[in-house]
């Protein structure tokens, strides 16, 4: 099947599929005319990559997961270790996001939000305040 059909079946755009080919995550066959030819196995791999990327795995970790997927002698502990690492990275992202949310909430709570030109949010930004433990400009 052509790249358009592969895109339709996977929900990935053609540019992403070509990128995965460029970085050698997938190697479609080529027809006599040079066009890419995707098999059901290629679609399976593209769906695999779509799920892994949707869970924020890096390209290199996708490459590692794909290698494990293809290796019938893999140890599930290796897969689990990579997933545990991803969970740890997501925990860090969540913690940082919660800190940012708390900072924004604090700034919002200190802004009058009326027609006055004075704005505690802009004052904090211009003062370089990045978290709520920094001294708030009033």
From TrEMBL:
Keywords: DNA-binding, Transcription, Transcription regulation
Highest taxon above the source species: Bacteria
Keyword DNA-binding: yes
One MF term in the entry's GO annotations: DNA-binding transcription factor activity
PROSITE patterns linked to this entry: HTH_MERR_2
Limits of the HTH merR-type domain: 1-68
Record protein name field: Cu(I)-responsive transcriptional regulator
């Amino acid at each position: 099947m052509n790249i358009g059909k592969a895109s339709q079946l996977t929900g990935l755009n053609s540019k992403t599929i070509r990128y995965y080919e460029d970085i050698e995550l997938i190697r479609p066959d080529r027809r006599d005319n040079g066009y890419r030819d995707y098999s059901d196995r290629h679609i399976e791999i593209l769906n695999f990559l779509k799920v892994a990327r949707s869970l924020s795995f890096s390209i290199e970790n996708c490459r590692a997961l794909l290698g494990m997927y293809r290796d019938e002698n893999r140890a599930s502990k290796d897969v689990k270790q990579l997933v545990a690492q991803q969970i740890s990275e997501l925990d860090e992202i969540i913690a940082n996001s919660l800190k940012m949310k708390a900072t924004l909430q604090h700034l919002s709570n200190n802004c009058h939000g009326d027609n006055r030109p004075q704005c505690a949010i802009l004052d904090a930004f211009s003062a370089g305040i990045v978290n709520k433990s920094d001294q708030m400009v009033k």
